[in-house]
Amino acid sequence: MKIARNVWYKGEFTRDERTGYGTLVVDGVSTYRGNFRNGKKSGQGRLTMRDGSWYEGRFKDNKKNGKGRFYDANTKKTEKGYWIADDLVTKGSTRSRRLPIDRRDFTTSSFGGL
Questions:
Q1: Which residue in 23, 52, 106, 111 has a CA-CA distance of 20 to 30 Å to 2?
Q2: Per residue in 76-92, pLDDT tens?
Q3: Dmax over Cα atoms in the chain, in whole Å?
Q4: 26 near 47, Cβ under 8 Å?
Q5: Which domains does the chain have, with CATH numbers?
């Protein structure tokens, strides 16, 4: 089902919102396969970006949140750890840092309001 310009979704709906398992494709190249709750990525899923980078793990309210793995296609490195609101919390440290994600993959306008 086309939900916005260049945004396609196939999966479960509850009260006109993405809920349950589904696949969201943006511009034919960025893909999220996993669980949705109240129209947002929530629970277990895999997000693949246009450059080949990917994150696999837990999501909450459209953000990486919980245990997961991130593969950076540019550096060919995989990071495992625990994320809070899109930030990787480094094991054994209170430091956090931003992941090198191309924000153009999943912008507010691309999601049609999400």
A1: 52
A2: 999 999 999 999 986 53
A3: 44
A4: no
A5: 2-102 (2.20.110.10)
